[in-house]
Amino acid sequence: MTLHLPDAHGALRAYEPRAEPLPALRATPGSAFTSRTVFSAAHVVADPYADTTPDGPAAVDWDATLAFRRHLWSHGLGVAEAMDTAQRGMGLDWAGAAELIRRSAAEARATGGRIACGVGTDQLTATTGTGLAEVRAAYEEQLAVVEESGAQAILMASRALAATAQGPDDYLEVYGHLLRQAAEPVVLHWLGPMFDPALEGYWGSSDLDTATGTFLEVIAAHPDKVDGIKVSLLDARREVELRRRLPQGVRCYTGDDFNYPELIAGDDQGFSHALLGIFDPLGPLAAEAVRVLDTGNTEGFRALLDPTVALSRHLFQAPTRYYKTGVVLLAWLSGHQSHFTMVGGLQSARSLPHLARAYRLADEIGLFPDPKLAEERMRNLLALYGVNR
Questions:
Q1: Dihedral through CA 280, CA 345, CA 317, CA 94, nearest 10?
Q2: Which of 166, 186, 239, 325 sees the fewest Cβ atoms within 10 Å?
Q3: What is the DSSP letter of 40?
Q4: CA-CA distances (angstroms) from residue 365 to 324, 330, 349, 360?
Q5: Residue 56's CB: how many other CB atoms inside 10 A?
Q6: Which of 221, 199, 220 is nearest to 208 (CA)?
Q7: Quick one: CA torsion of 318, 39, 250, 149, rounded to 10 degrees?
Q8: How far does CA 211 lie from the centroid of its chain?
Q9: 180: how many CB neighbours lie within 10 A of its CB?
Q10: What are the tens digits of pLDDT across the range 133-190?
């Protein structure tokens, strides 16, 4: 049945939804991946019935949130928990993130799923009096929560450190301190300012070559404490150059939601593993693609993932930090939650034309396991905005 979707200019365009999902979505999950380590950064499901406000504490539907993580684990994906996809610093405060980490880590133990959790400093608001000691203490508090939960730690970029550090030496001091005390090897996360403008000049310089040098210096000083790095700069060339300079045994986890197929496929000098927000909506398809890659079939891997890039680039278009809205839209359309509501009211962060194009791009590649359900829910969303034909 025809849907009328608004285009970028507000004009309604007829669209005929597809009737069947992509056949790869019906593949039965097999054994664990052998060629790549793959994490999906997972979103949180809001409680739509909670009486809250955009600047109040997050109200999370824990049952639906944990059910979505079981969905990802069932396909063999690891879960990267309490990351920016989970709206850290954009609706989910540290108290909510700590509860999320504890609950998800317990669920991972119960189901045998792999989990790594974000460690940051978002309980700390940097002021003119904030010093490195306060930043270190905030990191240490969060690291303790993650390690006590039994999860692997991901050291995320810190807004407070970006505001407090006077130069590269301060980053070397803070990260060196944390790595020395970490119980197990961690993942270092370099999140670019397109994802969070407050992180401009991270590693002590706005010059990316200089910043890369400092980043590599941190790793070189503690290679036994760094499992890998997650690079979220949306620059494939720079990621390839960086991964070629890593010490042996340190992985590169791509966080490039624009160029992930080519970076995961790799070249004759190496490849990237994955820790991606786009693998939240692409979970089953991404898992099937990696299993194809496990057989050595790079062309088959690319044939499955390349058609998803247009959707990912749309969801992550500027302002990139609002990609979470499209991710949750697709979770709702796919039947993973009963509503399109987000913590902090972030469902309003993207326009109806943006959401309509996200639906169309996802439907065209057969991403919805039940296309009729997705069509019905999209029709309801359109009606809410006043589109009645």
A1: -60
A2: 166
A3: E
A4: 20, 13, 25, 9
A5: 13
A6: 199
A7: 110
A8: 22
A9: 10
A10: 999 999 999 999 999 999 999 999 999 999 999 999 999 999 999 999 999 999 999 9
pLDDT 10s digits, 280-317 = 999 999 999 999 999 999 999 999 999 999 999 999 99
pTM: 0.96
**Class of residue 252 by CB neighbours under 10 A (exposed 0-12, middle 13-18, buried 19+):** buried
pLDDT in tens, 324-337: 999 999 999 999 99
Q: Which residues pair with 247 in a beta bridge?
A: none
Distances (CA, A) of 73 to 30, 31, 42, 145, 209: 12, 12, 11, 22, 37
Sequence-ordered list of residues with C-beta below 8 angstroms from that of 313, at least 6 positions apart, any chain: 257, 258
- Which residue bears the tokens 């949750």? 328
Residue 266 confidence (pLDDT): 98
Token pair in block for residue 69: 């993580």
CA distance 189 to 195: 12
In degrees and rounded to multiples of 5, residue 275 shows phi and psi of -145, 95
Q: Output the CA angle 296-39-255, nearest 5 degrees.
A: 90
Nearest-CA neighbor of 294 among 13, 46, 3, 31? 31
For residue 6, the Cα-to-chain-centroid distance in whole angstroms is 28
* Dmax (CA) of the chain: 62
Length of the chain: 389
Burial of 322 (0-12, 13-18, 19+ CB in 10 A): middle
Say how far apart CA 353 and CA 237 lie, in whole Å: 32
Structure confidence at residue 27 as a pLDDT band (50, 70, 90): confident
DSSP 188-225: EEEE-TTT-GGGTTGGG-SSHHHHHHHHHHHHHH-GGG
Is pLDDT of 128 > 70?
A: no
Sort strands 12-15 and 3-6 into parallel, antiparallel or unpaired.
Answer: antiparallel
Write the DSSP symbol of residue 386: T
